[in-house]
Fold:
Amino acid sequence: MALIEVFHVVASQYPIATASATDIPQGRIVTLDANGEVTLADANTGTVAAGEPLNVGIAGDSRSSGVTSYSPESGSSLHQQQGLTKATDLDGSLILGSYGDAQRFTQNRVADNYNEVLASGKMTVYHSGGEFWTDQYETTRDTGGAATVFTPGTALFSSRGSTAANRGLFTDQVVVESANGESAYVGISLTSPTGYPSGVPGTGPNAVGFQALPEGGNSLSWGNFLHVKLAI
Structure:
């Protein structure tokens, strides 16, 4: 659950190379390559220079090499394993042993090794606006190393990405390329990163209190999510 759709305007399906070592988690900013296939955006994408690819939208599916289900295993509080020293998160998993000592991720298409684009050869891409929660954002700027600050009402950009793992992330950093101009913004921050409630009542180190829950009290968190208004 790297992307939670609140409102979407257009959900298109674009071709994508299904066999690739480069993972594209849902919730990342994407563009099209020269073959018209979905690929990760970076800070050069969307610049004002002629010939530069433009940001197309936000990925609604995940292309995975099969090592993760792209549910937010990292940082989630849904890993309450009594008496165990390790803290393997349980969200998106089929529990095979007591206290989650053994599990298999099932959130994505298990038959396709968690690759949601394998069967169709297409990826859902949301564009033309919308409102989303995503955990695909930079906490530390890829350039300069400063901590990101997502103030509500401020512009969001696509991360530069010194590696493929860091491309297409929402960031607060405006990157100026000497040859390519200034990168275009992709959205607006509506809420600073905050714990998103799972709806499972409970308490724990990452539990976040949400009074809006019908049953009241605390809800275990899926992890921190950024609330964004999409501008592409």
Q: What stands out?
A: The chain has one domain: 3-230. Residues 68-92, 94-111 have pLDDT under 50 and may be disordered. The longest strand covers residues 187-201.
